[in-house]
Design goal:
- Helix content is about 70%, strand content about 0%.
- The chain contains six helices and no strands.
- The protein has helices at about 1-10, 10-25, 45-55, 60-65, 70-90, 95-140.
- Helix 1 (about 1-10) packs antiparallel against helix 2 (about 10-25) and helix 5 packs antiparallel against helix 6 (about 95-140).
């Protein structure tokens, strides 16, 4: 339980040490080369995803970084589309429509994309942490603690 708790807190080094100690004690032929801690998940930084979306508009950079390319492309296309619609409307002397729909639509998808990039990074981290913790938990569950006989000896 302690190992899984350390994983949840992303204290990988301590969890790796505890895992190795547990497996050597109860797992018999433990080989560190096969430890799940050799493949610790690379988590995304939600702040970085948010900043990329905020400071690089029209690129979908935050969503690409967070791991959702289709959503990044859609967000990019919608932002460019609203700006293009706004510019076309202004050129056609429909100023109010151009400003309200073009700038308003762009602003909605810009700010939504910034928030969404953060959430996608958080969801990615949750998914990868769950996958890794499941791998560790399954490894721990395969190990059987020795039973004590009536004299208190392990067998």
């Amino acid at each position: 339980l302690g190992i899984l708790s350390l994983n949840e807190m992303q204290r990988w080094h301590e969890a790796d040490t505890a895992y190795g100690r547990y497996m050597r004690l109860w797992g018999g032929g433990y080989d560190p080369a096969w430890s799940p801690y050799n493949h610790i998940p690379k988590l995304k930084n939600p702040d970085k995803a948010e900043d990329l979306s905020a400071f690089l508009p029209f690129t979908g950079a935050g969503l690409f970084y967070a791991g959702d390319a289709p959503e990044a492309i859609l967000n990019m296309a919608l932002q460019v589309g609203f700006i293009a619609f706004g510019a076309y409307s202004v050129l056609m002397e429909r100023y109010i429509t151009g400003i309200l729909v073009g700038v308003g639509g762009y602003a909605a998808f810009y700010h939504g994309g910034v928030r969404r990039a953060r959430r996608v990074a958080e969801m990615y981290n949750e998914r990868e942490s769950l996958r890794f913790n499941t791998l560790v938990r399954n490894g721990l569950m395969r190990v059987r603690a020795p039973r004590e006989d009536s004299s208190g000896e392990h067998r």
